[in-house]
Amino acid sequence: xxxxxxxxxxxxxxxxxxxxxxxxxxxxxxKRCIDSISGKFDEIIIVDTGSTDxxxxxxxxxxxxxxxxxxxxxxxxxxxxxxYALNNSKGKxxxxxxxxxxxxxxRKEILKKLPELAINDEINLNVICxxxxxxxxxxxxxxxxxxxxxxxxxxxxxxxxxLRSNNFTLKIIPDYDIVICHDGYLDEVVKSKNKLERNIKLxxxxxxxxxxxxxxxxxxxxxxxxLFDATYAIKKIKKILKxxxxxxxxxxxxxxxxxxxxxxxxxxxxxxxxxKTLDLLGSIEPNNKNIVFYRGLFQLNSWKIKAKEMLDYLIxxxxxxxxxxxxxxxxxxxxxxxxxxxYLFECGYYQQAEKLFxxxxxxxxxxxxxTYYFSLLQGRKTENRxxxxx
Length: 390
What we know:
Elements: E1 17-23, H1 30-37, E2 43-48, H2 55-61, E3 67-71, H3 78-87, E4 93-96, E5 101-103, H4 107-112, H5 114-117, E6 124-133, E7 139-140, E8 146-148, E9 153-156, E10 162-165, E11 169-182, H6 187-193, H7 195-207, H8 214-223, H9 230-247, H10 253-267, H11 271-284, H12 290-319, H13 334-346, H14 350-362, H15 368-386
């Protein structure tokens, strides 16, 4: 089904560059996305997969001359939707952009890339991966978006779909000149669209077709990090790593190992096993800066576990020793109360810590440590009231 827009008759023989969008219920962002690509491509094709909000009206209201709006019945597969867009594009070069993205680069920058995308031999086909910048300034240059519209190219996978070719070897080219800004994974957007639950469902469906594919397993484990049991995930990852070694699919090995580390942190694995995994990651990429972060996080988690164990021990000891303690640091045992208060603070039990520190101060028990921690608590209360952190 094709909607009536402001598009005039276009000579398909003159079409060179086409921007393609897959949309559904994108009223929050679709206008700014269209504004960012208008005038930069010879044609814009938007495929709507069943919007029930104001998305279609907003698109039509833009009255963009070279915009074509098509309807595609949702099949529980982003690959199907993308392939439908490709099949309806007559341009030589296609550029995929999502509705929650904004293209920052101009038309001149787009056109400069066309010679690089042209088919130069019968084996390789260049695919450009723009610089996609997230809301937190993190960016990636590993997602193929811009390529020659060869009939042999298609997408596979119900979500996190992968560009494939039966006859060509796709040569991935990171590009820092073409810049896209993206905000679709802001926490509130993820929750409002139930993206994670949807992605898990579609990934499980894809894995029924390719159960040992490293890409689908990686994204499943990433999307399900908050839901999956660590023991289950670690077992699954180790199986996939054996398969990667066997098939030499090293392109995803680093990502899978990184995910293994995250699940080991979640499951509080032994330090020996954790360091072994860090060494494995380092053997693939010796200067991987994530290793320093993960090692620091592991030590912090280990300290917190030990601190909680010590706190439990101190509380139990204090409950069993309520009598006066002549010749000790304090006869009434306030020195024991003070160390308990400090551990309460460091373990995050701020209200209990404040109550115990206040008790000690009110009983005129003072020390440099009590003054320091009590001031931290008072400062934290002030910051909370002013809304600086919470």
